[in-house]
Amino acid sequence: METLVNFRDLGGIVTKEGKKVKRNKLLRAGQPVNVSDSDKRELVQGHDLKLIIDFREQSEVDKEPVDKIEGVEYVHIDVLKSESTNSIGREDFEKVNSIEDADRLMFSVYEQLVLDPSAQRVTYYF
Question: Is 86 in the same domain as 73?
Answer without folding.
Answer: no
